[in-house]
Design a protein that fits this description.
Layout lengths: L3 E11 L1 H12 L7 H9 L7 E10 L12 E8 L1 H10 L2 H6 L2 E3 L6 H13 L10 E6 L4 H13 L5 E7 L5 E7 L4 H15 L4 E3 L6
Parallel strand pairs: 1-4
Antiparallel strand pairs: 1-2, 2-3, 3-8, 5-7, 6-7
Helix pairs in contact: 3-5
Protein backbone atom coordinates (compact mmCIF):
# COMPACT_ATOMS: atom_id res chain seq x y z
CA UNK A 1 0.00 0.00 0.00
CA UNK A 2 1.33 3.43 -0.93
CA UNK A 3 1.92 6.12 1.68
CA UNK A 4 3.33 9.63 1.71
CA UNK A 5 6.87 10.13 3.01
CA UNK A 6 7.97 13.43 4.56
CA UNK A 7 11.72 13.76 4.02
CA UNK A 8 12.56 17.26 5.22
CA UNK A 9 10.86 20.17 6.94
CA UNK A 10 11.43 23.92 6.83
CA UNK A 11 9.49 26.41 8.90
CA UNK A 12 9.48 30.17 8.56
CA UNK A 13 8.24 33.08 10.63
CA UNK A 14 7.20 36.23 8.78
CA UNK A 15 7.02 39.22 11.13
CA UNK A 16 4.05 41.53 10.66
CA UNK A 17 6.43 44.40 9.85
CA UNK A 18 7.99 42.36 6.99
CA UNK A 19 4.58 41.33 5.67
CA UNK A 20 3.40 44.95 5.73
CA UNK A 21 6.52 46.17 3.94
CA UNK A 22 6.13 43.49 1.24
CA UNK A 23 2.43 44.39 0.87
CA UNK A 24 3.42 48.01 0.25
CA UNK A 25 5.84 46.82 -2.43
CA UNK A 26 3.06 44.72 -3.97
CA UNK A 27 0.78 47.75 -4.22
CA UNK A 28 3.68 50.03 -5.19
CA UNK A 29 2.95 52.55 -2.45
CA UNK A 30 5.32 54.38 -0.12
CA UNK A 31 2.82 55.45 2.54
CA UNK A 32 1.40 52.83 4.88
CA UNK A 33 -1.69 54.98 5.54
CA UNK A 34 -3.55 53.66 2.51
CA UNK A 35 -2.53 50.02 2.97
CA UNK A 36 -5.51 48.84 5.11
CA UNK A 37 -8.04 50.16 2.58
CA UNK A 38 -6.17 48.54 -0.32
CA UNK A 39 -6.00 45.18 1.45
CA UNK A 40 -9.73 45.23 2.16
CA UNK A 41 -10.89 46.51 -1.24
CA UNK A 42 -8.66 44.23 -3.34
CA UNK A 43 -8.53 41.02 -1.32
CA UNK A 44 -10.83 41.19 1.70
CA UNK A 45 -7.87 41.12 4.09
CA UNK A 46 -8.73 43.06 7.24
CA UNK A 47 -5.43 42.81 9.11
CA UNK A 48 -1.84 41.59 8.87
CA UNK A 49 -0.07 39.86 11.74
CA UNK A 50 2.96 37.66 12.38
CA UNK A 51 2.71 34.59 10.18
CA UNK A 52 4.21 31.11 10.44
CA UNK A 53 4.72 28.88 7.39
CA UNK A 54 5.72 25.24 7.25
CA UNK A 55 7.10 23.44 4.18
CA UNK A 56 7.61 19.71 3.65
CA UNK A 57 9.68 17.86 1.09
CA UNK A 58 7.57 14.79 0.45
CA UNK A 59 6.49 12.19 -2.09
CA UNK A 60 4.57 8.94 -2.57
CA UNK A 61 6.37 5.76 -1.52
CA UNK A 62 5.57 4.04 -4.83
CA UNK A 63 6.50 6.88 -7.21
CA UNK A 64 9.97 6.73 -8.82
CA UNK A 65 11.76 8.90 -11.38
CA UNK A 66 13.81 7.79 -14.40
CA UNK A 67 16.86 7.27 -12.13
CA UNK A 68 14.82 4.90 -9.94
CA UNK A 69 14.80 7.39 -7.08
CA UNK A 70 11.64 8.22 -5.19
CA UNK A 71 9.95 11.37 -6.53
CA UNK A 72 9.60 14.23 -4.11
CA UNK A 73 8.44 17.86 -4.15
CA UNK A 74 8.40 20.70 -1.68
CA UNK A 75 4.92 21.76 -0.58
CA UNK A 76 3.62 24.68 1.42
CA UNK A 77 1.59 22.71 3.95
CA UNK A 78 0.27 25.71 5.88
CA UNK A 79 0.65 29.40 6.58
CA UNK A 80 -1.06 31.55 9.20
CA UNK A 81 -0.78 32.21 12.90
CA UNK A 82 1.04 29.68 15.08
CA UNK A 83 -2.28 28.30 16.31
CA UNK A 84 -3.74 28.10 12.77
CA UNK A 85 -0.82 26.08 11.41
CA UNK A 86 -0.62 23.83 14.48
CA UNK A 87 -4.32 23.04 14.04
CA UNK A 88 -4.35 22.61 10.26
CA UNK A 89 -1.06 20.72 9.89
CA UNK A 90 -0.34 19.30 13.32
CA UNK A 91 -3.69 18.22 14.70
CA UNK A 92 -5.63 17.75 11.44
CA UNK A 93 -2.88 15.57 9.91
CA UNK A 94 -2.48 13.48 13.07
CA UNK A 95 -5.00 10.82 12.02
CA UNK A 96 -3.13 10.19 8.75
CA UNK A 97 0.13 10.00 10.69
CA UNK A 98 -1.33 7.51 13.18
CA UNK A 99 -2.78 5.34 10.40
CA UNK A 100 0.48 5.27 8.43
CA UNK A 101 -0.88 7.17 5.42
CA UNK A 102 1.86 9.74 6.10
CA UNK A 103 5.23 8.64 7.48
CA UNK A 104 7.87 11.19 8.58
CA UNK A 105 11.22 9.89 7.31
CA UNK A 106 9.35 6.81 6.06
CA UNK A 107 8.73 5.59 9.62
CA UNK A 108 5.57 4.99 11.62
CA UNK A 109 4.82 7.73 14.14
CA UNK A 110 2.13 8.59 16.67
CA UNK A 111 -0.31 11.47 16.61
CA UNK A 112 1.19 12.92 19.79
CA UNK A 113 4.74 12.78 18.38
CA UNK A 114 3.62 14.45 15.17
CA UNK A 115 1.85 17.34 16.92
CA UNK A 116 4.92 17.79 19.14
CA UNK A 117 7.20 17.86 16.08
CA UNK A 118 5.09 20.44 14.23
CA UNK A 119 4.93 22.58 17.37
CA UNK A 120 8.73 22.38 17.74
CA UNK A 121 9.30 23.24 14.06
CA UNK A 122 7.03 26.30 14.33
CA UNK A 123 8.75 27.40 17.54
CA UNK A 124 12.21 27.19 15.94
CA UNK A 125 11.74 28.76 12.51
CA UNK A 126 14.30 29.48 9.85
CA UNK A 127 14.64 33.05 8.66
CA UNK A 128 11.84 34.29 6.40
CA UNK A 129 11.72 31.91 3.42
CA UNK A 130 10.23 32.65 0.01
CA UNK A 131 9.87 29.66 -2.33
CA UNK A 132 10.86 30.13 -5.95
CA UNK A 133 7.41 28.96 -7.07
CA UNK A 134 4.07 27.71 -5.80
CA UNK A 135 1.67 25.64 -7.90
CA UNK A 136 -2.01 24.91 -7.38
CA UNK A 137 -3.55 22.02 -9.30
CA UNK A 138 -7.27 22.29 -10.09
CA UNK A 139 -9.36 20.00 -12.26
CA UNK A 140 -10.31 21.84 -15.46
CA UNK A 141 -13.96 22.98 -15.17
CA UNK A 142 -16.51 20.98 -17.13
CA UNK A 143 -19.56 23.22 -16.64
CA UNK A 144 -20.39 26.91 -16.50
CA UNK A 145 -20.62 27.02 -12.69
CA UNK A 146 -17.14 25.60 -12.08
CA UNK A 147 -15.80 27.84 -14.85
CA UNK A 148 -17.36 30.83 -13.09
CA UNK A 149 -15.76 29.80 -9.78
CA UNK A 150 -12.36 29.61 -11.47
CA UNK A 151 -12.85 33.02 -13.11
CA UNK A 152 -13.76 34.59 -9.74
CA UNK A 153 -10.75 32.91 -8.11
CA UNK A 154 -8.36 34.26 -10.75
CA UNK A 155 -9.94 37.73 -10.53
CA UNK A 156 -9.30 37.69 -6.78
CA UNK A 157 -5.61 37.11 -7.51
CA UNK A 158 -5.42 40.49 -9.24
CA UNK A 159 -1.91 41.88 -9.15
CA UNK A 160 -0.13 38.50 -9.10
CA UNK A 161 1.72 37.21 -12.16
CA UNK A 162 0.42 33.70 -12.79
CA UNK A 163 1.29 30.98 -15.29
CA UNK A 164 -1.61 28.68 -16.23
CA UNK A 165 -0.95 25.42 -18.02
CA UNK A 166 -3.30 22.52 -18.77
CA UNK A 167 -1.87 19.03 -18.20
CA UNK A 168 -3.29 15.53 -18.24
CA UNK A 169 -2.89 13.45 -15.13
CA UNK A 170 -1.75 9.83 -15.11
CA UNK A 171 -5.44 8.83 -15.12
CA UNK A 172 -6.25 11.13 -18.03
CA UNK A 173 -7.93 13.93 -16.05
CA UNK A 174 -7.29 17.38 -17.48
CA UNK A 175 -6.00 19.78 -14.82
CA UNK A 176 -5.11 23.45 -14.65
CA UNK A 177 -1.67 23.99 -13.11
CA UNK A 178 -1.68 27.55 -11.77
CA UNK A 179 1.85 28.65 -10.87
CA UNK A 180 2.99 31.73 -8.99
CA UNK A 181 6.63 32.83 -8.80
CA UNK A 182 6.36 35.00 -5.69
CA UNK A 183 8.46 38.13 -5.39
CA UNK A 184 8.12 38.35 -1.61
CA UNK A 185 6.47 36.88 1.48
CA UNK A 186 3.23 38.83 1.02
CA UNK A 187 2.62 37.17 -2.34
CA UNK A 188 3.12 33.73 -0.73
CA UNK A 189 0.59 34.62 1.96
CA UNK A 190 -1.83 36.14 -0.57
CA UNK A 191 -1.80 33.13 -2.90
CA UNK A 192 -2.53 30.81 0.03
CA UNK A 193 -5.18 33.17 1.47
CA UNK A 194 -7.15 33.44 -1.78
CA UNK A 195 -6.81 29.71 -2.50
CA UNK A 196 -8.17 28.82 0.95
CA UNK A 197 -10.99 31.36 0.55
CA UNK A 198 -12.23 29.68 -2.65
CA UNK A 199 -11.09 26.05 -2.45
CA UNK A 200 -10.25 25.32 1.18
CA UNK A 201 -6.93 23.94 2.43
CA UNK A 202 -5.36 22.96 -0.87
CA UNK A 203 -1.72 21.87 -0.99
CA UNK A 204 0.54 24.29 -2.87
CA UNK A 205 3.61 22.70 -4.41
CA UNK A 206 6.01 22.80 -7.33
CA UNK A 207 8.77 20.66 -8.81
CA UNK A 208 12.39 21.78 -8.47
CA UNK A 209 11.59 24.39 -5.86
CA UNK A 210 14.28 26.31 -4.04
CA UNK A 211 14.16 29.00 -1.38
CA UNK A 212 15.58 32.50 -1.29
Amino acid sequence: MSYEIIYRTKSSKIPESKLRKDAMTHFNIGDVTNLPDLLISHYGIYSLRDMHAIYFECGASNCYDSDNKRCRDWILAGIGSYDDVLLNVGINWAMDIESGCIKPQGRWSTAASWVKKVSSDLSNPNETLVPSSLMLKLETPNDWYDKHLLDVFLADLEGLTLEIEQRKSFLGTLNNHITLRPKNSFEVFLFHFVTKKHYGNKILNQENVYFF
